[in-house]
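Comment thread on ticket #2218

A.B. wrote:
> Attaching the input chain for the structure job we discussed in standup.
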Amino acid sequence: MASISVRGASKTKGLVRDIKDIANFCLHRLMQDRLANKIAVDFFIMKEIDDEEESEGGGGTIGDCEWMDDAYSPKEFSVRIATHSIKNGRLKKFNRREILEIVCHELVHVKQQAKKEKYFHQRKDLVKFRGKLYDTNKVNYWDFPWEIEAYGRERGLYEMWLESKKSKK
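C.D. wrote:
> Ran it. Output below, let me know if you need it in another format.
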């Protein structure tokens, strides 16, 4: 089983349990058990993520994933998840489903890095994804193939996790 820790969500009833459960589900769904069992993810749940770069859409960063060990073949990750976003100048609180879908999204990035599909070049603005080099200054965020995959998988992973919980009852 993967090593999952969650900090910052203790006030939200059952959220820590759900994050750990969905994280293990996603990791084993996205990669072979042998690799999934070697992964360690530390989740940090916070109201907002301070980020020097403004995210696309102007709502601020709602999640990010960073490797903490070997850049080429990482197994240890830090994932930050925001519980709020700014939309049209107003603070919006995410519901449980939205938070868990953000978790799923970030776990797709964990998979991409752990399976060596995505890694960061020595130059900060270059990312290699599935053998192709991308200049992040020249490609729109919504056109990054790693984001297309993560956004495309987040809801499906959440729905499959829900189904798996129902079938266990």
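A.B. wrote:
> Thanks. Noting for the ticket: Confidence is low (pLDDT under 50) at residues 53-57.
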